[in-house]
Amino acid sequence: MRVLVTGGAGYIGSVVAAQLVEAGHDVVVLDDLSTGHADAVPAGARLVEGGIREHAQAVMAEQGTEAVLHFAARSVVPESVAHPDRYWDGNVGCSLALLEAMRVCGVGRIVFSSTAAVYGEPETVPIPEDAPVRPGNPYGATKAAIDAALTEHARMHGIGAVSLRYFNVAGAYAGLGERHTTETHLIPIVLQVARGLRESVSVYGADYPTPDGTCVRDYIHVADLAEAHLLALEHCRPGAHRVFNLGNGTGFSVREVIEVCREVTGHPVPVVAAGRRAGDPATLVASSERARAELGWVPRRPGLREIVADAWAFHTAHPGPAAGAEPRA
Ligand code: UDP
């Protein structure tokens, strides 16, 4: 299939692009490289550097795009709380422009990177897809808005759309891993501490209603997550918008994650108690029964130890700031 991958120079988009190339698809990556890296675009995919508003339509027309996988987005919860305008413009505005370009070019399929953050503070855990959508931060709110737009575009224009709601993605695949210039995610930060690139990790809040008081998340290997995208591509149905949660169904607290990182790396990881981070729900754990039943998705690397070990192998192979390390305070 001829596929356009927006954000394919980023962490998750590059892994999916690599798997698409491996599966024999014709892949064009559209990325403005604001947070992505040109060298993360896999050999065999073509990179077009630029924005969705400016380039998506021309790229689709030139490629004869049959399907879009849409990763390009801002994705940092605390930043979204501080700068919601960036998120409404960058996430919702660009996505609407992408949908319009698809309509003009007659592109019939889209797989969209949605998020567990659309559920806010859930009533039921593990969270099913029919749980109320009540985002607790602007990041989740913008992703929920795009999900709603996809439902309308499927109804109005007959496209087949799939939203994949990611829980906490980590690990690495084929030399592709997380390397954000400013890292905010727990596992890469803890691994930077283990490497001696940071003094300590701050634990944001120990007074949540969870067994040890720290937030509980469902960690999923990026390669398993990526495989779900290839399945979703095959399962787009004209006129339908389908939604799937992607997680392992097991929750780990911040403290448990840090302990697994200590065990995997063999390094001490000093922690510092800090206040709650704005926008963080206490517990996010997925029910992914629908993805298993309807997509035939089976996560093959569900263990947190393996996820952390793959992330650690990537981080140790990418020295210094290129791995997203912050300078020592
Ligand atoms: N977290 C933390 N210290 C850090 C980074 C994250 O305690 O330096 C916590 C964060 O508050 C949340 C969990 O780890 O409860 C996962 O955060 P992350 O940013 O990795 O993913 P999110 O769940 O926000 O998508």
Catalogue the ligands: uridine-5'-diphosphate
- Principal-axes shape call: globular
CATH architecture of the largest domain: 3-Layer(aba) Sandwich
H/E order of the elements? EHEEHEHHEHEEHEEEHEEHEEHH
Q: How many domains make up the coordinates?
A: 2
The named CATH superfamily of the largest domain: NAD(P)-binding Rossmann-like Domain
Sheet with the most strands, sense and barrel status: 7 strands, parallel
Low-confidence segments: 322-329
Average pLDDT taken over every residue? 95
Short description:
The protein has helices at residues 11-22, 52-63, 77-82, 84-105, 138-157, 186-194, 222-234, 254-265, 289-295, 304-317, and strands at residues 2-6, 26-31, 45-49, 67-70, 109-115, 160-166, 168-170, 201-204, 216-217, 219-221, 241-246, 252-253, 271-274, 283-284.
Tag the structure with descriptive keywords.
seven-stranded parallel β-sheet, UDP-galactose 4-epimerase, domain 1, 14 strands, single chain, globular, alpha/beta, 329 residues, 10 helices
